[in-house]
Design goal:
With 125 residues, the protein is mainly β. It has no helices and five strands.
Length: 125
């Protein structure tokens, strides 16, 4: 195993200074308390300011190519509205991954590894 010493001057937290997020969801009634949903999400988070020595260049927003730094996913879901509570079950598929190298950002091999299944209570936004 390898241990890495963390210098407090160079150790970064998960804080960001720019957040961009867009969500779209279309709901349709299936049966009584059961609704279906189609959704899409787009966004990313970036740092602004002086670049640290261990920062990735992609951690900073480049306004001339920020569109290529956006992640995109889409999916299907089920909504169970039982009055005071709403239960959501979603299956999302990653379509554009900005962390991949150029030429590989758009996901072409749509596999189960590129997807996520979630269970939530309440609406996402």
């Amino acid at each position: 195993s390898v241990e890495v010493a963390r210098d407090p001057k160079t150790y970064h937290t998960q804080l960001v200074t720019i957040k961009l997020e867009a969500n779209s969801e279309v709901r349709f009634r299936v049966y009584k308390v059961w609704q279906g949903a189609d959704f899409a999400e787009l966004g990313n988070v970036w740092l602004v300011g002086k670049k640290g020595p261990n920062d990735s260049p992609d951690a900073y927003c480049r306004f001339n190519r920020f569109y290529d730094q956006l992640g995109l996913n889409a999916g299907l879901g089920a909504r169970f509205d039982v009055g005071y509570f709403l239960f959501r079950v979603d299956w999302g598929l990653r379509l554009h991954d900005p962390n991949k190298p150029p030429g590989h950002k758009w996901i072409r091999d749509l596999t189960i590894r590129q997807s996520a299944f979630t269970f939530n209570v309440g609406y996402p936004f």
